[in-house]
Amino acid sequence: MRDLTSFQHLKDEVAGWRRYLHQHPELDYRLPNTARFVTETLQSFGINHIETGIAETGIVAIVHGSAGEGPTIGLRADMDALPIFEASGKQWTSTTPGQMHACGHDGHTAMLLGAAKHLAATRNFKGSVALIFQPAEEGMLGGQRMVQEGIMDRFDISQVFGMHNLPGMPVGTFGICDGPIMAALDEYDLVIKGRGGHAAMPHQTVDPVVIAAHVILGLQTLVSRMTDALESLVISVTKMDGGEAYNIVPEQITLSGTVRTLSPKLRDFAEERIRACAQGIARTFGGDAELSYRRHDPVTMNHTAGTERALRAARSLVGDASVDTKFKPLMGSEDFAYMLEARPGAFIFAGNGNSASLHNPSYDFDDEALPYGIGYWVNLVETTLAA
Fold first, then answer.
1. Number of structural domains, the chain?
2. For residues 288 and 268, what is the distance between their CA atoms, to the nearest angstrom?
3. Is this prediction's pTM over 0.85?
4. Is 185 exposed, middle or buried (CB count within 10 Å of its CB: 0-12, 13-18, 19+)?
5. In terms of domains, do 334 and 243 share one?
6. Whether residue 171 sits in one domain with residue 103
7. Cα–Cα distance for residue pair 366/353, rounded to 1 Å
8. What was the pLDDT predicted at 387?
9. Shortest CA distance to 117 belongs to which of 384, 380, 386, 377?
10. How does strand 233-241 pair with strand 252-261?
C-alpha cells in the first residue's frame, strides 16, 4: 500500500490531460475526440489490450499484473460532458459553446488514466485490471448499455468499482457507506384531463389547471404523510405544460417531474400512489388523470465486501480520519448502479473542495484532487489483488 507521495509526481501531467478534456467536451455517446485521446494515452503506457467501440464510444483496457494469475477487477470512469454554457472563467474553459464538463467527468477520466500509467509501469498485483471508460452517464444509460453489451463476461470482471468527486467535501477526503449510496431515478408525466371552455364562464368547464394545482399539493402528502420519516422519498414536479390563451380554459394540463428513492419497495409505492393520488383528485373534480412512469437508474447499492475493500484502499492513502464511513446517501442518481447490479463492488466519493456545485456553470474540477484519486485506484488494485 502506498501513501500520497507515490503519486504526487503525476499531478502536473494528469492535470494537463484533465484540462485538455475540459477544453474539448463532448456529449452522451458522441465522444470521438475523447475516446481517441483516451485510447492513444493508454497506448502510450504500453497497454496493448484495448477494446474500443463498446456502447459506441466506450473503452475497456486490460492491464495484467506481474505476480501471477488471479481475478479481474473493473475500475470505471465516465467521460461525457453536459449541455451547459460554461461560466467558470478558467484558462482551460470549454472551447465548445453550450457544452462543458460541469460534473467532473474530465477529472474522473484523467485520474483513471493516471492510475493506468502507474499500474502499467509497476504491475505489482495478481490477476488483471479492466479499465472501463464509459460514455453517456448523464441520463443516457451508458453504464447499462456497456453491461448489456457484455463487458462483465467478456472481460471476466469479478468485481467493479466507481468513484465520483463531490464539491463541499475537502480535497484529500473520501466518503462511503455500505448499502444504498445514491438513489434510483424515475421520471413521470401526468396528463390532467378536464373540459375546456371560456375562461369567463369557468362553471361550464372542468378546469384542469385547478385540478393540477391540487394534484401538486397532493403528491407532497405522499412524502410527508404516507412515507416513514426515516425513509427517503423525493417527488418533484419540475414542468407544467398546457393552455394557449388568456381567455380559454384548456382541455388538459401535463405535469412532469422526477422521483428519487433508496429502496425498491418505496419505488413501487411511489409509482402506485402517484397514479392513485392524481386520479382520485382529478375524478373528485370531474376530470381524470393518466400517468406515464419511466424507471431509469436503479439504486446505487454498495456491497459489503466491496465497501470494505474501498475503505481499506482509502484509509491506506489518507488515514482513518479522512475517510467518512457513515456517509449519508445522496438522492442524485448514477448509472454505475447497473454495473453494481451485474457484479459486486462499491462506489466512493472523493472531495473536490470548495468548488461550485455539480451541474453548475461555474463548476471546475480541483486538480489538487488528482493524486488522491490516482492513489485510491492504485491502492484498491494492489490491496484487492495482493501479490
1. 2
2. 22
3. yes
4. buried
5. no
6. yes
7. 7
8. 67
9. 377
10. antiparallel
Clarify whether residues 166 and 56 are in a common domain: yes
At which of 273, 295, 317 does a domain end? 295
171 grid coordinates: 480535497
- Cα→Cα distances 156→73, 151, 193, 211, 338, Å: 8, 8, 52, 54, 16
- Cα dist. 305→129, 241, 301, 345, 349 in Å? 18, 47, 12, 7, 17
* Residue 269, SS3 per DSSP: helix
Residue that is written with C-alpha cell 488483471 in the block: 128
Helical spans, DSSP H, in the chain:
11-23, 32-44, 105-122, 142-148, 151-154, 208-224, 264-284, 304-318, 337-342, 370-384
Residue whose cell numbers read 484523467: 110
* pLDDT for 67 beyond 80: yes
Please report the pLDDT score of residue 73 as a whole number: 98
Predicted confidence band at 3 (pLDDT cuts at 50, 70, 90)?
confident
Between 370-384 and 105-122, two packed helices, what is the crossing angle to 10 degrees?
50
Query: How does pLDDT run across 133-145, given as a tens digit for each residue?
Result: 999 999 899 999 9
Domain hosting residue 45, numbered range: 4-182+299-384
Q: What is the mean pLDDT of the chain?
A: 97
pLDDT tens for 27-57 read 999 999 999 999 999 999 999 999 999 999 9
By three-state DSSP, how is residue 205 classified? Answer: coil
- Region 309-337: mean pLDDT is 97
Q: Which one-letter amino acid corresponds to residue 372?
A: Y
